[in-house]
Amino acid sequence: MRKLLVVLFIVASLAAASSSTAQTLDWETIQQIHPTTPITVVAQKQFHCNFEAANTDKLFCLVVPTNLLPFVNIKPSELVFDRADVREVRLAPDDWSKGYLDLILGAGGGGGWDANHQPTGFGGVKLGGALALDLQYDRIQGHNGFSTAGSAVIPMFRIPSPKLNQDKMFLRTYAEPGIGYRAGGGTFGFYSSAKVLFVLFSVPKWAESSPYVEFERRFPFNSPLQGDNRLTIGVMLAVCQHCGVE
Fold first, then answer.
1. Residues 138, 163: one domain?
2. Alpha helix (H) ranges present in the chain?
């Protein structure tokens, strides 16, 4: 377990280092940026957009909105900045997935083993955002039951790190400490849980469904050593806080 924590810390450090390589540009360099390149413009607020063009007085870029309805065509909006208002322009591998999730709508199922090394099975849904609610039906030690749990969804790191003009799949990891209650037979009741969530995203297609895998360990309050280990596989719709303009 200690070795695993060390590995996760090293990976998180490398991911943070690679995402902090932002380069602040002067105006002549800005004018030479290739169209459609993602940039960050700092004016009165901070904006993420795709570069269009820049002349001696103005900078033009496009914001592509998050589209929750794939069959609805939403056109990009153009932003125009006066040179005098632009404090900073950064050309960097910006991580559009950073920050907490605004929306989670997921369904999944799986199995695991209890304290007696007996197989278990379950299925359910995950709802929420930065705070998530899990509703599940399961079978443990020959007893059917229903559990509900709330947890924080804390962003950790992504693999691989973001790249310029990249439209590829990547894995985003979240930690989920939580508390819940299981109604049914067995040693459960109120319990705490420790979960790690892995979501496979595609940049910038945040509105599409994404497969996920979740590892969980549950600790019953009345008997912490009689908990269970579980693996969930499912699909979710996830929308991030940093898609488009901040």
1. yes
2. 2-19, 27-31
Half-sphere exposure of 83 (CA within 13 A, CB side): 12
pLDDT of 23: 61
Tell me if 44 sits within 8 A of 215, measured CB to CB: no
Q: Which two tokens stand for residue 96?
A: 């559009």
Residue 34: DSSP 8-state: P
Q: Is the pTM of this model over 0.85?
A: no
Instruction: Give the pLDDT confidence of 77-99 residue by residue, as tens digits.
Output: 899 999 999 999 987 666 767 77
Residue with tokens 């040179």: 83
Q: Is residue 28 part of a domain?
A: yes
> What span, in angstroms and rounded, lies between the C-alpha atoms of 18 and 201?
19
Instruction: Note whether residue 8 is domain-resident.
Output: no
Question: What is d(CA 29, CA 244) in angstroms, rounded to the nearest whole number?
Answer: 23
Per-residue b/e over 190-204, b at no fewer than 16 CB within 10 Å?
A: ebbbebebebebebb
